[in-house]
Amino acid sequence: MPSESVWGQQQHGMFDPTPPDPTSGCPANGGPPASMPTFTLQEVDDCIYPSGTGINPGTWTLFVKYQVLENGKPIYGSDLKSVVVTENVVNGPNSNIKNTGGAWCINGGSCGAGGMDSSGNFWDMLSGQGTASQTFLVGGQAVAGVSIGGQQLTTLNNNYNSKGQTISVGGGALVGTSTTRECGTKNGDPTYR
């Protein structure tokens, strides 16, 4: 007789059609199934390049530094090897945001781009005119939240006004202005010149 996989099991001569409870664990390995980690980002610094960068010369630019957290804790060194952060940026109407979405991983990591240090920190560059919504992903899954300006957000609704030297991130949770610290004054600042 051919064998087939069924959910039920024979109990006292009766067939129980109830599927197994996936949260009850697997007796074969002695415990509950492993849970997926929760990734979040935390804003840790920001600075400006008033004259722009080699990527956007002459365009006032805000840089925001984020740190990747796994289950609320920083990730370091080799534990970052498989972590790839990407972003999706959707321009609002009549916007001129030159961003196709970034990718960050540690040097030698699986994204090839690098840009993330061994403490899980990376810099995001923002410049242009208009509005855009920005989301971050880790391993293709949306991050559970971005902690910025004391707020926890999943989508950052950004207003870009490089001509007016103001960029608002996350609906005003962080606002970069001409009084924001200039990049290059602190060890670890972005070097996109």
Could you outline the blueprint of secondary structure elements for this entry?
Elements lengths: L8 E3 L2 E3 L22 E11 L11 E10 L2 E2 L10 E7 L11 E4 L8 E2 L4 E6 L2 E10 L2 E2 L3 E3 L2 E3 L2 E6 L4 E4 L4 E3 L17
Parallel strand pairs: 3-12, 7-8
Antiparallel strand pairs: 1-2, 3-4, 4-5, 4-9, 6-7, 6-10, 10-11, 10-14, 12-13, 14-15, 15-16
Give the CA-based shape: globular
Describe the largest sheet. 8 strands, mixed
What's the number of structural domains?
Answer: 1
Class derived from helix and strand content: mainly beta
Radius of gyration over all CA atoms, rounded:
23 Å
Report the CATH C-level class. Answer: Mainly Beta
Mean pLDDT: 83
Fill in the CATH topology: Immunoglobulin-like
What is the strand content?
35-45%
Counting copies of identical and different chains, the oligomeric state is single chain
Span of the ends, CA to CA: 72 Å
Count of runs of 4 or more consecutive helical residues: 0
Unreliable stretches (pLDDT < 50, length at least 5) are 1-20
Helix content: under 10%
